[in-house]
Amino acid sequence: MEIKYEIYIAAKPEQVWNILVSKEESSKIFHGCGIESDFKVGSNYAYIGPGPSGDKTVHVEGKILEIVPNKILSMTLLVGSVYGEHYKNFESRTVYTLEPYGNSTRLKLVNDKIKEGDPSYERSADGGWARVLSSIKSLAETGKPLELPMGEG
């Protein structure tokens, strides 16, 4: 199974890229959970922030599969074990592709290699990724992410 989205953002690819890979910027779109990694192929990454295990809760983790600065970020995606051990069997892949589009950016997202029965699939397909991308767009264009209720996005 796979989920695909494409969005246009009135910002340069470098600005959108920074939102994806900066701990500080990514935490603005993920309720205070920022990405941590050295961003090398094969390296681990994690979105860490406030949650059930305190301020250092690992919400999502995985490995960097491909990285081309300002163009491609491909990584495995595994929901943190704090949400239940059943998630450890449901790794998928997320690929962000950024392309210049005039003075803007075309941001494509593919979340694929999703296994049948993955408990996070329905939430992701039912607007989860759309909310994340909309928040990236808002942050890049206005300097403010969307104010989404906790548990959304």
From TrEMBL:
Record-annotated Activator of Hsp90 ATPase homologue 1/2-like C-terminal domain positions: 11-141
Lineage top rank: taxon: Bacteria
SUPFAM superfamilies hit by this protein: Bet v1-like
InterPro entries: ASHA1/2-like_C (IPR013538), START-like_dom_sf (IPR023393)
Pfam (any one): AHSA1
Family per similarity comment: Belongs to the AHA1 family.
Protein name: Activator of Hsp90 ATPase homologue 1/2-like C-terminal domain-containing protein
